[in-house]
Amino acid sequence: MNKQNARVCYNSLTDYSKGNLVFKWFDLDGKTSEEHSEELAEWLAELTDNSKDGELREEWEIADTENVPHDLLNFGVDAFIQYQEHVDVIGKDALDAALSLGVLYWDQNLNEYNHTPEELICLYMGSFDSWDVPKQLAEFIDDNSGLLDDMPEHLQAYFDFESYGRDLLTDTYCEENGHVFQRV
């Protein structure tokens, strides 16, 4: 499955208000917010320089998008660019689970997500089979923490990983579609 390029199309509002449709498509893949903002500013400056009416072109509107989740556009293109940065680190399915669980959210006051991609990956425990998440999570915790190391081996078989995992998912972790995150 090929990744489809994300693009956004802007209209110049100065021209639009005069009855002219002046627009340009911009690729978003691999761009930082700063790079994208610079490209947009350069385009508007070029329109201003090439106009014969002497009016400044500094206002724009998003006219269309391709391969950009529409709910992210409520927060602007920066939200999408940062979304892509998170996808590159953690994967789309895990990221969508983090958003759905509220582990990750867009902070409108700061104009950024509440966690960087690196912080989010630290909260991510992994992906487990959705039919057996509690038991698999508990076994994962045991394997990585030595939870039962001090317990005699003949008693370890009596440990109820299923119940322990359900307790973990109640208090310490949250899960959606097999993706488990530490609660914050």
- DSSP, total strands: 8
Strands side by side in the biggest sheet: 2-1-3
* Structure annotation, total helices: 9
Helix percent band: 40-55%
Unreliable stretches (pLDDT < 50, length at least 5) are: none
Order of helices and strands: EHEHEHHHEEHEHHHEE
Largest sheet: 3 strands, antiparallel
Structural class: alpha+beta
Please report which band the strand proportion falls in: under 5%, 5-15%, 15-25%, 25-35%, 35-45% or over 45%.
15-25%
- Report the mean per-residue pLDDT as an integer: 91
Distance between the amino and carboxyl termini: 34 Å
Shape: rod-shaped
Radius of gyration: 24 Å
Could you characterize what this model shows?
With about 180 residues, the chain is of the alpha+beta class. Among the domains are: about 70 residues; about 60 residues, Arc Repressor Mutant, subunit A. Helix content is about 45%, strand content about 20%. A three-stranded antiparallel beta sheet has the order 2-1-3. The model has no long low-confidence stretch (mean pLDDT about 90).
Which tags fit this structure?
single chain; about 180 residues; alpha+beta; Arc Repressor Mutant, subunit A; three-stranded antiparallel sheet; 9 helices; 8 strands; about 20% strand
